[in-house]
Amino acid sequence: MNWKDEWKWLAGLVGAFLVLFYLPVGMPRFDNAVLEGLYLAKSYAQEHVILCLLPAFFIAGAIGVFLSQNTVMKYLGADAKKVIAYGVASVSGTILAVCSCTILPLFAGIYRMGAGLGPAVAFLYSGPAINVLAIILTARVLGLELGIARAVGAIVFSVVIGLIMHGIYRHERRDGNGPQMMLGDGDGMRPLWQNALYFAAMIAVLVFANWGRPQADAGVWHAVYASKWIITALSAAGLGVMLVTWFAVPPVKVVAVGVITAVFSLAFPSTPMVGFAIGVMGLSYLTSTQKGEMQEWFSGSWGFAKQIMPILFAGVLVAGFLLGRPGYEGIIPSVWVSSLVGGNSFFANFIASIAGAFMYFATLTEVPILQGLMGSGMGKGPALALLLAGPAVSLPNMLVIRSIIGTGKTVVYVSLVIVMATISGFLYGTLF
Amino acid sequence: MKKLQILGTGCAKCVKLADNTEQAARKLGMDYEIEKVTDINEIMKFGVMMTPALAVDGKVKSVGKVLTSAEIEELIKE
What we know:
The complex is a heterodimer. Chain A is an all-alpha fold.
């Protein structure tokens, strides 16, 4: 026996045994919490996957393939103008990053070889919070208002935190010339307006397919709602035309996919999800069977799906188990949640910021967790505070950040994040 | 002997690139050694910020992409 290698197995087995031995099955609170987890997972599967997540994966994949990341990095190089560097750093997270494992090397790069501490910190802070998938899911699940507040808050405060960090450490000199930035091959052979139209068509599909029913039964919003599937279909058709003209996908294939999608949509008019799912499959077929860019687009989107779906569903199950669906209780009593982070007191915002800063949220899982917390009585302000402090920092990535910029700066950064998140949550809760 | 270095903090993409590189090198039947560089400060010394990246004998050949093994063969051939 080699106990050096075998102890992990032993510990795992004994642990599993103890958990099962004392498993509180049959206790109403526990059984109910398990059910809540399953209910929440079911509602995600029914409401958010086909219409929201699938198109969002395609958009995220397209961003990775068609938008040149090098162009962005040029604005963050060593000779970049400061104003531009801060501006670009605070918004570039939308197109550069989807998980924190891409954020950290870029952050280190901007700090060491590029524009310096301020813009690097701005990028580090806003990156995880404003990536497309995070914003889309936040707006979809937690409401448009909070989605927008999250994006705007992250952008504004990233610049503020960056400037403060720069101000505090402005006398520090950087040691000599670092290595040169190595960038990949230049791309971007398509003119800007084509890219813009192409992304506009995809975003239109996403937005209109998810258009919520307005409260009033008349007016502009209702008119849009009433014809949302027509607008969605037209946008999708536009996308099809672009695929043929600019991306050299054979017209026969595109028309075939279009016809099949139309047939299914008309055959099941009461469940538009069927037509939509067929359309998504069609797009997958079109892109995955082409060579070059189209295939890269597909494999990029598929990569995101593989990376995010399992974690997200695990996160939804856990969130449902711990906190329950909105309006129901999970294993944690709602009273605890509402007494800690209910309402919009300064204390509630502060607790939410601290919790957010130290907790680790795997990509996008902050959304179901927050949904559970809000259902248990968390106020809007603390919710925003948690969203702003949460994905930007966590205990594991603090350790990596510390290895890059040192203990002192890391402590200052984390404190700034907590203070800023508290203040912005407080303001948001008071104003809205 | 060639030194093939995979730069990346250990996410799924970096593992994929390492696998593909191994495959390519084996197919070419060359004398090689694969090193995974996971420390972020070491990665910075190469000037790389988009991971995963591939370096051959200390020279960066590709940045921010998971190359297929066929593409890697081209890069490490001579």
